[in-house]
Protein backbone atom coordinates (compact mmCIF):
# COMPACT_ATOMS: atom_id res chain seq x y z
CA UNK A 1 0.00 0.00 0.00
CA UNK A 2 1.92 2.99 -1.22
CA UNK A 3 -0.88 5.51 -0.79
CA UNK A 4 -0.61 5.75 2.96
CA UNK A 5 2.42 6.78 5.01
CA UNK A 6 4.30 3.85 6.46
CA UNK A 7 3.06 4.11 10.01
CA UNK A 8 -0.54 4.27 8.84
CA UNK A 9 -0.08 1.19 6.69
CA UNK A 10 1.21 -0.57 9.75
CA UNK A 11 -2.06 0.21 11.56
CA UNK A 12 -3.97 -1.77 8.98
CA UNK A 13 -1.52 -4.56 8.21
CA UNK A 14 -0.37 -5.38 11.73
CA UNK A 15 -3.68 -6.68 13.04
CA UNK A 16 -4.19 -8.67 9.86
CA UNK A 17 -1.22 -10.90 10.56
CA UNK A 18 1.33 -10.43 13.31
CA UNK A 19 -1.01 -8.86 15.81
CA UNK A 20 -4.24 -10.54 14.79
CA UNK A 21 -6.99 -10.01 17.36
CA UNK A 22 -8.13 -13.63 17.29
CA UNK A 23 -5.00 -15.67 16.82
CA UNK A 24 -2.52 -13.47 18.69
CA UNK A 25 -4.52 -11.40 21.16
CA UNK A 26 -7.11 -14.18 21.57
CA UNK A 27 -10.05 -11.75 21.59
CA UNK A 28 -13.46 -12.28 20.05
CA UNK A 29 -13.22 -16.05 20.16
CA UNK A 30 -16.84 -16.53 21.23
CA UNK A 31 -18.39 -15.12 18.10
CA UNK A 32 -15.75 -16.84 15.98
CA UNK A 33 -17.02 -20.15 17.34
CA UNK A 34 -20.70 -19.35 17.22
CA UNK A 35 -21.31 -18.18 13.72
CA UNK A 36 -18.72 -19.81 11.48
CA UNK A 37 -20.67 -22.92 10.48
CA UNK A 38 -21.49 -21.19 7.21
CA UNK A 39 -19.29 -19.02 5.07
CA UNK A 40 -22.07 -16.53 4.37
CA UNK A 41 -22.70 -15.79 8.04
CA UNK A 42 -18.95 -15.33 8.56
CA UNK A 43 -18.70 -12.83 5.74
CA UNK A 44 -21.71 -10.82 6.90
CA UNK A 45 -20.41 -10.78 10.46
CA UNK A 46 -16.99 -9.65 9.23
CA UNK A 47 -18.51 -6.80 7.22
CA UNK A 48 -20.77 -5.72 10.09
CA UNK A 49 -17.89 -5.66 12.55
CA UNK A 50 -15.74 -3.66 10.12
CA UNK A 51 -18.56 -1.10 9.86
CA UNK A 52 -19.28 -0.91 13.58
CA UNK A 53 -15.65 -0.89 14.72
CA UNK A 54 -14.38 1.72 12.25
CA UNK A 55 -17.28 4.12 12.84
CA UNK A 56 -17.23 3.48 16.59
CA UNK A 57 -13.49 4.10 16.77
CA UNK A 58 -13.92 7.43 14.99
CA UNK A 59 -16.73 8.53 17.28
CA UNK A 60 -14.81 7.60 20.42
CA UNK A 61 -11.70 9.25 19.10
CA UNK A 62 -13.59 12.48 18.32
CA UNK A 63 -14.94 12.52 21.87
CA UNK A 64 -11.70 11.40 23.50
CA UNK A 65 -10.99 14.79 25.07
CA UNK A 66 -14.44 15.33 26.50
CA UNK A 67 -15.30 11.86 27.81
CA UNK A 68 -15.17 11.85 31.63
CA UNK A 69 -12.65 9.17 32.49
CA UNK A 70 -14.81 7.83 35.34
CA UNK A 71 -17.57 6.71 33.04
CA UNK A 72 -15.60 6.06 29.88
CA UNK A 73 -16.46 2.35 29.73
CA UNK A 74 -20.17 3.15 29.94
CA UNK A 75 -19.80 5.76 27.22
CA UNK A 76 -18.05 3.21 25.00
CA UNK A 77 -20.79 0.70 25.63
CA UNK A 78 -23.46 3.22 24.73
CA UNK A 79 -21.70 4.13 21.49
CA UNK A 80 -21.36 0.52 20.35
CA UNK A 81 -24.89 -0.39 21.46
CA UNK A 82 -26.34 2.58 19.60
CA UNK A 83 -24.46 1.71 16.43
CA UNK A 84 -25.56 -1.91 16.62
CA UNK A 85 -29.21 -1.00 17.17
CA UNK A 86 -29.11 1.36 14.19
CA UNK A 87 -27.53 -1.34 11.99
CA UNK A 88 -30.18 -3.79 13.19
CA UNK A 89 -33.06 -1.42 12.45
CA UNK A 90 -31.72 -0.60 9.00
CA UNK A 91 -31.36 -4.28 8.17
CA UNK A 92 -34.91 -4.92 9.36
CA UNK A 93 -36.22 -2.17 7.14
CA UNK A 94 -34.26 -2.83 3.98
CA UNK A 95 -33.12 -6.44 4.14
CA UNK A 96 -35.71 -8.25 6.24
CA UNK A 97 -34.73 -11.79 5.19
CA UNK A 98 -31.10 -11.23 6.07
CA UNK A 99 -31.98 -9.64 9.39
CA UNK A 100 -34.08 -12.68 10.32
CA UNK A 101 -31.15 -14.96 9.62
CA UNK A 102 -28.76 -12.77 11.55
CA UNK A 103 -31.05 -11.85 14.42
CA UNK A 104 -28.89 -13.13 17.24
CA UNK A 105 -25.57 -12.41 15.62
CA UNK A 106 -26.16 -8.68 15.17
CA UNK A 107 -26.77 -8.41 18.90
CA UNK A 108 -23.60 -10.40 19.47
CA UNK A 109 -21.52 -7.60 17.97
CA UNK A 110 -22.07 -5.64 21.18
CA UNK A 111 -20.46 -8.38 23.21
CA UNK A 112 -17.46 -8.65 20.91
CA UNK A 113 -14.52 -7.82 23.11
CA UNK A 114 -12.43 -6.63 20.17
CA UNK A 115 -14.68 -3.60 19.87
CA UNK A 116 -14.46 -2.49 23.49
CA UNK A 117 -10.78 -3.44 23.46
CA UNK A 118 -9.94 -1.15 20.53
CA UNK A 119 -12.04 1.72 21.91
CA UNK A 120 -10.22 1.52 25.21
CA UNK A 121 -6.72 0.77 23.97
CA UNK A 122 -6.53 2.83 20.82
CA UNK A 123 -9.37 5.22 20.03
CA UNK A 124 -9.17 7.00 23.40
CA UNK A 125 -5.58 7.99 22.73
CA UNK A 126 -5.38 8.61 19.00
CA UNK A 127 -6.65 10.92 16.28
CA UNK A 128 -9.84 10.00 14.39
CA UNK A 129 -8.03 9.10 11.16
CA UNK A 130 -5.63 6.75 12.90
CA UNK A 131 -8.47 5.31 14.94
CA UNK A 132 -10.43 4.72 11.75
CA UNK A 133 -7.51 2.81 10.18
CA UNK A 134 -6.98 0.85 13.37
CA UNK A 135 -10.67 -0.07 13.39
CA UNK A 136 -10.58 -1.27 9.80
CA UNK A 137 -7.38 -3.21 10.41
CA UNK A 138 -8.53 -4.98 13.54
CA UNK A 139 -11.99 -5.78 12.25
CA UNK A 140 -10.49 -7.08 9.01
CA UNK A 141 -8.01 -9.20 10.96
CA UNK A 142 -10.95 -10.63 12.86
CA UNK A 143 -12.91 -11.05 9.63
CA UNK A 144 -10.11 -12.91 7.84
CA UNK A 145 -9.97 -15.56 10.54
CA UNK A 146 -13.77 -15.82 10.57
CA UNK A 147 -13.83 -16.34 6.82
CA UNK A 148 -11.03 -18.93 6.87
CA UNK A 149 -12.78 -20.88 9.62
CA UNK A 150 -16.16 -20.52 7.92
CA UNK A 151 -14.68 -21.72 4.63
CA UNK A 152 -13.32 -24.95 6.10
CA UNK A 153 -16.30 -25.65 8.31
CA UNK A 154 -18.84 -25.25 5.53
CA UNK A 155 -16.69 -27.11 2.98
CA UNK A 156 -15.89 -30.10 5.18
CA UNK A 157 -19.08 -30.08 7.22
CA UNK A 158 -21.74 -29.59 4.56
CA UNK A 159 -19.80 -29.98 1.31
CA UNK A 160 -21.01 -26.57 0.16
CA UNK A 161 -19.61 -23.06 -0.16
CA UNK A 162 -21.98 -20.10 0.23
CA UNK A 163 -24.72 -22.70 -0.13
CA UNK A 164 -23.54 -24.08 -3.48
CA UNK A 165 -22.66 -27.76 -3.51
CA UNK A 166 -19.02 -27.86 -4.60
CA UNK A 167 -18.17 -31.46 -3.75
CA UNK A 168 -21.08 -33.11 -5.51
CA UNK A 169 -24.33 -34.48 -4.19
CA UNK A 170 -24.06 -36.56 -0.98
CA UNK A 171 -27.43 -38.28 -1.50
CA UNK A 172 -27.06 -39.32 -5.13
CA UNK A 173 -23.32 -40.00 -4.64
CA UNK A 174 -21.89 -37.79 -7.32
CA UNK A 175 -18.57 -35.87 -7.35
CA UNK A 176 -16.20 -36.87 -4.56
CA UNK A 177 -19.01 -38.71 -2.78
CA UNK A 178 -18.80 -41.36 -5.51
CA UNK A 179 -15.41 -42.36 -4.03
CA UNK A 180 -16.82 -42.95 -0.56
CA UNK A 181 -16.20 -39.45 0.85
CA UNK A 182 -18.59 -38.36 3.59
CA UNK A 183 -19.33 -34.96 5.11
CA UNK A 184 -17.94 -34.55 8.59
CA UNK A 185 -20.81 -33.52 10.84
CA UNK A 186 -18.35 -32.64 13.59
CA UNK A 187 -17.23 -29.64 11.59
CA UNK A 188 -20.62 -28.04 12.17
CA UNK A 189 -20.20 -28.10 15.95
CA UNK A 190 -18.42 -25.30 17.79
CA UNK A 191 -15.54 -27.40 19.19
CA UNK A 192 -14.27 -27.94 15.66
CA UNK A 193 -14.18 -24.18 15.14
CA UNK A 194 -11.82 -23.96 18.09
CA UNK A 195 -9.67 -26.70 16.60
CA UNK A 196 -9.54 -24.93 13.25
CA UNK A 197 -8.51 -21.71 15.00
CA UNK A 198 -5.90 -23.73 16.87
CA UNK A 199 -4.52 -25.00 13.57
CA UNK A 200 -4.36 -21.46 12.20
CA UNK A 201 -2.48 -20.35 15.32
CA UNK A 202 -0.09 -23.28 14.88
CA UNK A 203 0.63 -22.46 11.25
CA UNK A 204 1.06 -18.78 12.03
CA UNK A 205 3.45 -19.31 14.93
CA UNK A 206 5.55 -21.87 13.16
CA UNK A 207 6.08 -19.36 10.35
CA UNK A 208 6.81 -16.47 12.70
CA UNK A 209 8.76 -17.67 15.72
CA UNK A 210 8.59 -14.25 17.42
CA UNK A 211 4.92 -14.83 18.25
CA UNK A 212 5.64 -17.85 20.44
CA UNK A 213 5.29 -16.99 24.11
CA UNK A 214 7.72 -18.40 26.61
CA UNK B 1 -5.82 22.06 38.89
CA UNK B 2 -7.61 18.91 37.87
CA UNK B 3 -8.74 18.51 34.34
CA UNK B 4 -12.35 19.53 33.79
CA UNK B 5 -13.26 15.98 32.67
CA UNK B 6 -12.45 14.69 36.16
CA UNK B 7 -15.07 16.80 37.91
CA UNK B 8 -18.21 15.14 39.24
CA UNK B 9 -20.45 17.92 37.97
CA UNK B 10 -19.02 17.50 34.50
CA UNK B 11 -19.54 13.73 34.61
CA UNK B 12 -23.21 14.22 35.45
CA UNK B 13 -23.61 16.93 32.81
CA UNK B 14 -21.96 14.69 30.20
CA UNK B 15 -24.16 11.69 31.03
CA UNK B 16 -27.33 13.76 30.76
CA UNK B 17 -26.35 15.18 27.37
CA UNK B 18 -25.25 11.75 26.15
CA UNK B 19 -28.54 10.14 27.16
CA UNK B 20 -30.53 12.92 25.49
CA UNK B 21 -28.56 12.73 22.26
CA UNK B 22 -28.52 8.94 22.01
CA UNK B 23 -32.15 8.64 23.10
CA UNK B 24 -33.46 11.06 20.52
CA UNK B 25 -31.22 9.58 17.82
CA UNK B 26 -32.54 6.07 18.42
CA UNK B 27 -36.11 7.25 18.73
CA UNK B 28 -35.71 9.12 15.45
CA UNK B 29 -34.29 6.10 13.64
CA UNK B 30 -36.97 3.80 15.02
CA UNK B 31 -39.72 6.22 14.09
CA UNK B 32 -38.30 6.82 10.63
CA UNK B 33 -38.01 3.14 9.77
CA UNK B 34 -41.18 2.01 11.53
CA UNK B 35 -43.39 2.08 8.45
CA UNK B 36 -40.96 0.06 6.42
CA UNK B 37 -40.48 -2.53 9.15
CA UNK B 38 -44.24 -2.91 9.71
CA UNK B 39 -44.69 -3.42 5.99
CA UNK B 40 -42.04 -6.15 6.02
CA UNK B 41 -43.81 -7.88 8.89
CA UNK B 42 -47.13 -7.70 7.08
CA UNK B 43 -45.63 -9.29 3.97
CA UNK B 44 -44.05 -11.96 6.12
CA UNK B 45 -47.44 -12.88 7.58
CA UNK B 46 -48.92 -13.33 4.13
CA UNK B 47 -45.92 -15.39 3.07
CA UNK B 48 -46.28 -17.64 6.11
CA UNK B 49 -50.00 -18.23 5.57
CA UNK B 50 -49.38 -19.11 1.94
CA UNK B 51 -46.52 -21.38 2.92
CA UNK B 52 -48.75 -23.39 5.26
CA UNK B 53 -51.11 -24.17 2.39
CA UNK B 54 -48.26 -25.21 0.15
CA UNK B 55 -47.87 -22.06 -1.92
CA UNK B 56 -44.15 -21.43 -1.86
CA UNK B 57 -41.02 -21.11 -3.92
CA UNK B 58 -39.24 -24.26 -2.74
CA UNK B 59 -36.70 -25.54 -5.24
CA UNK B 60 -35.23 -28.53 -3.43
CA UNK B 61 -36.08 -30.88 -0.57
CA UNK B 62 -34.38 -28.76 2.02
CA UNK B 63 -35.10 -25.09 1.39
CA UNK B 64 -37.91 -23.07 2.85
CA UNK B 65 -38.54 -20.40 0.24
CA UNK B 66 -41.46 -18.00 0.37
CA UNK B 67 -43.23 -16.28 -2.45
CA UNK B 68 -41.06 -13.22 -3.21
CA UNK B 69 -42.29 -10.03 -1.48
CA UNK B 70 -43.17 -8.32 -4.77
CA UNK B 71 -45.57 -11.08 -5.80
CA UNK B 72 -47.01 -11.89 -2.42
CA UNK B 73 -49.88 -9.40 -2.54
CA UNK B 74 -51.34 -10.81 -5.75
CA UNK B 75 -50.71 -14.45 -4.77
CA UNK B 76 -52.37 -13.88 -1.44
CA UNK B 77 -55.56 -12.56 -2.99
CA UNK B 78 -55.44 -15.31 -5.59
CA UNK B 79 -55.22 -18.25 -3.17
CA UNK B 80 -56.87 -16.97 -0.01
CA UNK B 81 -60.57 -16.89 -0.86
CA UNK B 82 -61.97 -15.82 2.47
CA UNK B 83 -60.74 -14.34 5.69
CA UNK B 84 -63.08 -15.10 8.54
CA UNK B 85 -63.22 -14.04 12.15
CA UNK B 86 -64.94 -16.17 14.77
CA UNK B 87 -66.07 -14.39 17.89
CA UNK B 88 -68.14 -16.60 20.14
CA UNK B 89 -70.94 -17.88 17.93
CA UNK B 90 -70.51 -15.20 15.31
CA UNK B 91 -68.62 -15.85 12.15
CA UNK B 92 -67.97 -12.81 10.04
CA UNK B 93 -65.90 -12.03 7.02
CA UNK B 94 -63.19 -9.45 7.46
CA UNK B 95 -60.83 -8.17 4.82
CA UNK B 96 -57.66 -7.88 6.83
CA UNK B 97 -58.24 -10.60 9.37
CA UNK B 98 -54.64 -11.72 8.99
CA UNK B 99 -53.54 -8.51 10.67
CA UNK B 100 -55.32 -9.38 13.92
CA UNK B 101 -52.74 -9.44 16.69
CA UNK B 102 -53.12 -12.90 18.22
CA UNK B 103 -51.01 -12.05 21.22
CA UNK B 104 -53.17 -9.05 22.04
CA UNK B 105 -56.36 -11.09 21.69
CA UNK B 106 -54.94 -13.70 24.03
CA UNK B 107 -54.12 -11.11 26.67
CA UNK B 108 -57.54 -9.44 26.39
CA UNK B 109 -59.33 -12.78 26.64
CA UNK B 110 -57.38 -13.68 29.75
CA UNK B 111 -58.53 -10.53 31.48
CA UNK B 112 -62.07 -11.83 31.11
CA UNK B 113 -65.23 -10.20 29.78
CA UNK B 114 -63.91 -10.41 26.30
CA UNK B 115 -64.74 -12.93 23.61
CA UNK B 116 -61.57 -13.60 21.67
CA UNK B 117 -61.54 -12.87 17.95
CA UNK B 118 -60.20 -15.86 16.09
CA UNK B 119 -58.97 -15.22 12.56
CA UNK B 120 -59.19 -18.10 10.12
CA UNK B 121 -58.36 -18.26 6.43
CA UNK B 122 -59.91 -20.32 3.69
CA UNK B 123 -57.56 -21.03 0.84
CA UNK B 124 -58.14 -22.76 -2.44
CA UNK B 125 -55.52 -24.43 -4.58
CA UNK B 126 -56.10 -26.78 -7.50
CA UNK B 127 -59.71 -27.35 -6.49
CA UNK B 128 -58.85 -28.21 -2.91
CA UNK B 129 -59.99 -26.19 0.06
CA UNK B 130 -57.67 -25.42 2.96
CA UNK B 131 -58.62 -24.12 6.38
CA UNK B 132 -55.65 -22.25 7.77
CA UNK B 133 -55.45 -21.60 11.48
CA UNK B 134 -52.88 -19.40 13.20
CA UNK B 135 -51.14 -20.82 16.26
CA UNK B 136 -49.22 -19.18 19.05
CA UNK B 137 -47.54 -20.74 22.07
CA UNK B 138 -44.44 -20.90 24.20
CA UNK B 139 -41.14 -22.53 23.29
CA UNK B 140 -38.11 -22.89 25.50
CA UNK B 141 -36.87 -19.29 25.51
CA UNK B 142 -39.61 -17.27 23.96
CA UNK B 143 -42.71 -17.31 21.82
CA UNK B 144 -43.28 -19.83 19.05
CA UNK B 145 -45.99 -19.44 16.45
CA UNK B 146 -47.12 -20.73 13.13
CA UNK B 147 -49.96 -21.68 10.84
CA UNK B 148 -51.56 -25.05 10.26
CA UNK B 149 -53.60 -25.89 7.17
CA UNK B 150 -56.32 -28.56 7.43
CA UNK B 151 -58.64 -30.00 4.82
CA UNK B 152 -62.32 -30.66 5.46
CA UNK B 153 -61.51 -34.10 6.91
CA UNK B 154 -59.27 -32.40 9.50
CA UNK B 155 -56.15 -33.86 7.94
CA UNK B 156 -53.07 -31.63 8.10
CA UNK B 157 -52.09 -30.35 4.67
CA UNK B 158 -49.13 -28.29 5.72
CA UNK B 159 -47.68 -26.27 8.56
CA UNK B 160 -45.40 -23.37 9.06
CA UNK B 161 -43.58 -22.70 12.33
CA UNK B 162 -41.43 -19.84 13.45
CA UNK B 163 -39.93 -18.75 16.73
CA UNK B 164 -38.48 -15.73 18.43
CA UNK B 165 -35.46 -17.11 20.19
CA UNK B 166 -35.16 -20.89 20.22
CA UNK B 167 -31.64 -22.33 20.39
CA UNK B 168 -29.92 -22.23 16.98
CA UNK B 169 -29.29 -25.74 15.69
CA UNK B 170 -31.68 -27.33 18.20
CA UNK B 171 -35.09 -25.76 18.88
CA UNK B 172 -34.64 -23.37 15.98
CA UNK B 173 -34.92 -26.37 13.66
CA UNK B 174 -38.70 -26.28 14.00
CA UNK B 175 -38.67 -24.06 10.93
CA UNK B 176 -36.70 -26.56 8.88
CA UNK B 177 -38.26 -28.60 6.12
CA UNK B 178 -37.54 -32.05 7.60
CA UNK B 179 -39.54 -31.14 10.67
CA UNK B 180 -42.42 -29.23 9.11
CA UNK B 181 -42.92 -31.74 6.31
CA UNK B 182 -43.47 -34.48 8.88
CA UNK B 183 -46.84 -32.99 9.77
CA UNK B 184 -48.35 -33.43 6.32
CA UNK B 185 -51.05 -36.08 6.36
CA UNK B 186 -51.27 -36.31 10.14
CA UNK B 187 -54.74 -36.41 11.62
CA UNK B 188 -55.81 -34.36 14.60
CA UNK B 189 -58.57 -36.80 15.58
CA UNK B 190 -58.28 -40.38 16.71
CA UNK B 191 -61.65 -41.85 15.76
CA UNK B 192 -63.93 -39.14 17.03
CA UNK B 193 -61.74 -38.02 19.87
CA UNK B 194 -59.71 -34.82 19.47
CA UNK B 195 -56.03 -35.56 20.01
CA UNK B 196 -54.08 -32.77 18.35
CA UNK B 197 -50.60 -33.69 17.21
CA UNK B 198 -47.90 -34.62 19.69
CA UNK B 199 -44.21 -34.17 19.13
CA UNK B 200 -42.70 -37.17 20.86
CA UNK B 201 -39.31 -38.74 21.27
CA UNK B 202 -38.80 -42.47 21.59
CA UNK B 203 -41.36 -42.66 18.87
CA UNK B 204 -41.45 -46.09 17.27
CA UNK B 205 -42.29 -44.49 13.97
CA UNK B 206 -39.34 -42.14 13.32
CA UNK B 207 -39.84 -42.05 9.58
CA UNK B 208 -43.43 -41.06 10.23
CA UNK B 209 -45.00 -43.63 7.96
CA UNK B 210 -47.97 -44.05 10.28
CA UNK B 211 -50.19 -41.04 9.72
CA UNK B 212 -52.93 -42.10 12.11
CA UNK B 213 -50.95 -42.06 15.35
CA UNK B 214 -51.30 -38.29 15.94
CA UNK B 215 -47.55 -38.18 16.50
CA UNK B 216 -44.50 -36.78 14.78
CA UNK B 217 -40.89 -37.44 15.68
CA UNK B 218 -39.25 -34.93 18.01
CA UNK B 219 -36.07 -32.98 17.34
CA UNK B 220 -32.97 -34.10 19.21
CA UNK B 221 -32.00 -31.61 21.88
CA UNK B 222 -35.23 -29.67 21.61
CA UNK B 223 -37.57 -31.43 24.02
CA UNK B 224 -39.00 -28.32 25.61
CA UNK B 225 -39.52 -26.60 22.28
CA UNK B 226 -41.30 -29.72 21.03
CA UNK B 227 -43.49 -29.92 24.12
CA UNK B 228 -44.32 -26.26 23.61
CA UNK B 229 -45.44 -26.96 20.06
CA UNK B 230 -47.53 -29.93 21.16
CA UNK B 231 -49.29 -27.80 23.75
CA UNK B 232 -49.73 -24.95 21.29
CA UNK B 233 -51.30 -27.16 18.61
CA UNK B 234 -53.64 -28.82 21.07
CA UNK B 235 -54.74 -25.62 22.80
CA UNK B 236 -55.29 -23.51 19.70
CA UNK B 237 -56.95 -26.17 17.56
CA UNK B 238 -59.34 -26.92 20.41
CA UNK B 239 -60.21 -23.27 20.51
CA UNK B 240 -61.01 -23.26 16.81
CA UNK B 241 -62.88 -26.56 16.61
CA UNK B 242 -66.45 -25.34 17.25
CA UNK B 243 -66.06 -22.55 14.76
CA UNK B 244 -64.26 -24.72 12.22
CA UNK B 245 -67.00 -27.33 12.39
CA UNK B 246 -69.63 -24.77 11.50
CA UNK B 247 -67.61 -23.42 8.60
CA UNK B 248 -66.86 -26.84 7.15
CA UNK B 249 -70.48 -27.97 7.42
CA UNK B 250 -71.73 -24.95 5.51
Strand content of chain B: 15-25%
Global morphology of chain A: globular
Biggest sheet of chain A, in brief?
2 strands, antiparallel
Uncertain residue segments of chain A: none
- What is the straight-line distance between the termini of chain B? 88 Å
Summarize the amount of helix of chain A as a percent range.
55-70%
Report mean pLDDT of chain B, rounded to a whole number: 88
Uncertain parts of chain B: none
Measure the end-to-end span of chain A. Answer: 33 Å
N-to-C SSE series of chain A?
Answer: HHHHHHHEEH
Helix content range of chain B? 25-40%
Helix/strand/pairing category of chain A:
mainly alpha
Contiguous helical run count of chain B? 5
Structural class of chain B: alpha+beta
Major sheet size, sense and barrel closure of chain B: 6 strands, antiparallel
Strand order of the largest sheet of chain B: 2-1-3-4-5-6
Amino acid sequence: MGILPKKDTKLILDPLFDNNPITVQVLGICSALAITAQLKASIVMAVSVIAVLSVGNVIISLMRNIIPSKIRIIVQLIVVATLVIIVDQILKAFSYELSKQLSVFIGLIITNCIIMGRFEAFALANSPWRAFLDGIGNAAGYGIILIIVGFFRELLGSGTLLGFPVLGDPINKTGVYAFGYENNGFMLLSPMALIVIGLIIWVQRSRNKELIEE
Amino acid sequence: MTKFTEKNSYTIFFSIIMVLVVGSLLAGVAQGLKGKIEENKRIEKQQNILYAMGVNNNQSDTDVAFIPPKKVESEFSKYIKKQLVCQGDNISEENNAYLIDIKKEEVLAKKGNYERRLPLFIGEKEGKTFYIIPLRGKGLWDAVWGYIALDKEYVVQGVFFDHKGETPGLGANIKERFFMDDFKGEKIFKGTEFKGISIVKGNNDPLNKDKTDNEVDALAGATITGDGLTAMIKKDLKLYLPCLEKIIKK
